[in-house]
Amino acid sequence: MSVAHILGFPRVGAQRELKFALEKYWQGEIDQAKLRSIAKAVEEDGWRAQADLDLLTVGDFTFYDHILDTSVLLGVIPPRFNHPKGEKVSLDTLFRIARGRAPSGEDAPASEMTKWFDTNYHYIVPEIEKGQVFKLSSDRLFETVKRAKGFSSQAVKAVITGPLTWLKLASVKGEQFSKLELVPALTTAYKEILIQLEASGADWIQIDEPILVLDLCDKWRAAFKAVYQELAKISDKLILTTYFDELADNLETIVELPVAGLHIDAIRGDLANVVNQWPGDKILSVGIVDGRNIWANNLAQSLTTLTPLAEKWEGQLWVGSSCSLLHSPVDLNAEEKLDTEIKSWLAFGIQKIAEIKTLTLGVTDGRSAIEEALTKSNNIHASRETSTRIHNLAVAQRVAAIKAGDDQRETAFTKRSQIQANKFNLPLFPTTTIGSFPQTHEIRQIRRKYRLGEIDKQQYHEGIYDQIRYAISEQEKLGLDVLVHGEAERNDMVEYFGENLDGFAFTQFGWVQSYGSRCVKPPIIYGDVSRPKGITIDWIKFAQSLTDKPVKGMLTGPVTILSWSFPRDDESDQTSAFQIALALRDEVHDLEQAGVAIIQIDEPAIRELLPLRRERQADYLAWAEKAFRLSSSGVKAETQIHTHMCYSNFNEIIKSIANLDADVITIETSRSDMKLLNVFREFKYPNDIGPGVYDIHSPRIPTVTEIETLIEHATQYLPKEQLWINPDCGLKTRGWDEVRAALKNVVTATKSLRQRYQKAL
Q: Which reaction is catalysed here (predicted)?
């Protein structure tokens, strides 16, 4: 018989129960016992969802982040958090590492946060030092396995992050050294983890090593052989798990590892290559149901793929999700307002589990056992393929008509920058913010009442105008140089634009975890994209009417809208990106015509979509750069184009970022100690840049001295004339008291340095 399982389940709850509990705990509204009780209920809801599967997957639940959990398990706690060596790590210490503050313990700068491979999930980067000591410092994983054994009669599969993936993702602090020096000590710690997992009753151990889909050098491949030779001495129940891309040249190494089985991502991976090389006497787990997108599985096609595999791996074939379902919403059945036709094309977490169970039954008992499900699936896919709602001839013709030069500014930056300097007359180190201001209860109530019909359109507009007035007034009081309208009308930087473009559908409860308690509700791109009418013009015009200072028009870029939506699987990402770019180009034109002189087009996801394998990166970067320029290039020389990027490792694509030809780019640097600026020692960035000096994902208020230090550090890498001063990201998740205090310090630090540099001249 084949075995049905998943790699992980969404962990914030169907109604975001964990999110709200975390935030109440951080604010002192509930105690830790209540938080743990809610977390336990959310975790066990995920276990119940797996009741029809053969394996119960546990250990994937987390209070904040699974990589941080691994660091805590290993006892790798940065010294600044003053954790007593040898003691168990408290939940508040975990929160302080993640966000800089918790209900107990002293504030300290939070650890760096960055993207999990090519997803919009963020993990907390482990911090390691030369001679790092590993000591198991948490029992939560082992206690979870014990609890799961009593919860269900299913075999229990525990999930752990693999040692080499954890090590590869870690950041070296202090004296530099080769991470591989830590392999022996780390292997010893993992052997102890395996011992305790088996003692806790784990029937299988899913050991996630997604770095096996990256380009690895021979030393890292050799490390895999050394590590897994040792781990195999402890457990013969290891399922080596990969996802997100192809194994390619790493497969030869994997085949030699003494593990019980291998999981392969059949959606994005190289299944045919694995089938040819993986031994028939070992478990092969095939991730045939997409864990990252929401389109219903084509059961007939999947069954055709799986059936011959079941013959080769008789009794050893597992059927599962391509990756953890944490990247999917929980349950499509909750969507009562979603268009019926579009809804029929979709599958969320609960539905994906049903697809896995159905396919496993079909593999085991034959097609006749699932004939009804196959017929329904065939009808669904036929409906989608023939729907008249998907294709728009005018959009296709416009994309086809793109010609050379459409993505280029008419005037070079060297000339534009002088024209813009004369127009805006900004001081040294101009100060600005990224776009959003706090999304207060009052703002959410205004949007809620309008959505429910309790207020009319005019009342809604007046309510939002009041919020814009307040945001402009506060910025002027603070003394910022370039203002924003605050984005009070926007529920989300992607969903808002999707709601105003054709080709998008939206959910009520399609929440996906981005980091910690932060959830997003990605829109669904189901058809060709176009802009039926203007989106932001009236809001920005109103904001500009309130002040003599420039107010930035705020847009989300084409690659980010694509990346942070659930994309089509019947069309290339490039085509979708160009469609979105042309829609945004119309918006940029209208903003300029309305007198908006600075327009910011955010692209924080441009690094996120970068293919994991180097051989495919150049092609992606070429069309991603072009998509941005298509949206931004149709303006006059005096119109200043900004873009923003955050929480990704941009150094390796710095030339592509320069190729965007934005007049100003703002980036995250404060949480990562400005390490992103190292690239500018060798690469002369041509345009202006704003390295963030305020970590907005932490409630800590940076001091004036801290901000001055960061700015001065930036001047060691870039000419001071190129530097802008800004936070790392938008401020919607913070409160006004925090924002005022932090931005006051930003402005104070900036003015102090202006005086210092002017005296030096």
A: 5-methyltetrahydropteroyltri-L-glutamate + L-homocysteine = tetrahydropteroyltri-L-glutamate + L-methionine
Q: Rounded to an integer, what distance in angstroms lies between the CA atom of residue 205 and that of residue 156?
A: 9
Query: CA-to-CA distance for 66 and 94, rounded, in angstroms?
Result: 11
Long-range contacts of 471-475 (CB under 8 A, 24+ apart): 471/437, 471/543, 472/543, 472/546, 472/547, 472/551, 473/546, 474/437, 474/736, 474/740, 475/433
CATH code reported for the domain at 393-760 = 3.20.20.210
Say what the pLDDT of residue 636 is.
97
Kindly tell me if the per-residue pLDDT of 557 is higher than 70.
yes
* pLDDT attached to residue 677: 73
**What is the spatial distance between Cα 458 and Cα 163, in angstroms, rounded to a whole number?**
57
Mean pLDDT over 313-324 rounds to 96
Q: CA 619 to CA 627: how far, in whole Å?
A: 13
Which part of the chain is CATH 3.20.20.210? 3-386, 393-760
Angstrom distances, CA of residue 563 to CA of 332, 566, 610, 678: 21, 7, 11, 27
Q: Which residues belong to the annotated binding site for L-methionine?
A: 434-436, 487, 602
Q: Are 327 and 267 in contact (CB under 8 A)?
A: no
Write out pLDDT tens, residues 409-463. Answer: 999 999 999 999 999 999 999 999 999 999 999 999 999 999 899 999 999 999 9
| Under 8 Å between Cβ of 536 and 555 | yes
* pLDDT band for position 473 (cuts 50, 70, 90): very high
Q: How far apart are the first and last CA of the chain?
A: 79
Q: Whole-number mean pLDDT of the chain?
A: 95
Q: How far apart are CA 371 and CA 10, in angstroms?
A: 30
Residue linked to tokens 């500014």? 409
Going by DSSP bridges, is the β-strand pair 524-530/502-505 parallel, antiparallel, or unpaired? antiparallel
Contact 246, 281 (CB under 8 A): no
Inter-CA distances, 510 with 119, 337, 409, Å: 16, 12, 39
The token duo for 187 is: 């292997």
Which of 429, 455, 430 has the alpha carbon at shortest distance from 442? 455
- Residue 673 has a pLDDT of 59
Q: What are 208's strand-pairing partners?
A: 161, 241
Could you list the residues known to form a binding site for Zn(2+), using ranges. Answer: 644, 646, 668, 729
H runs (alpha helix) in 495-616: 495-499, 537-544, 558-563, 573-593
Residue 651 has pLDDT above 80, yes or no: no
Query: Could you say which of 5, 66, 697, 713 is catalytic?
Result: 697
Give the pLDDT confidence of 25-54 residue by residue, as tens digits: 999 999 999 999 999 999 999 999 999 999
Numbered residues of the known binding site for L-homocysteine: 434-436, 487, 602
Which amino acids are annotated as binding site, given as ranges? 16-19, 115, 434-436, 487, 518-519, 564, 602, 608, 644, 646, 668, 729
Residue 650 scores a pLDDT above 90: no
Would residue 697 show up in a list of annotated catalytic residues for this protein?
A: yes
Report CA 301 to chain centroid distance, whole Å: 30
Q: Is the confidence at residue 761, as pLDDT, over 60?
A: no
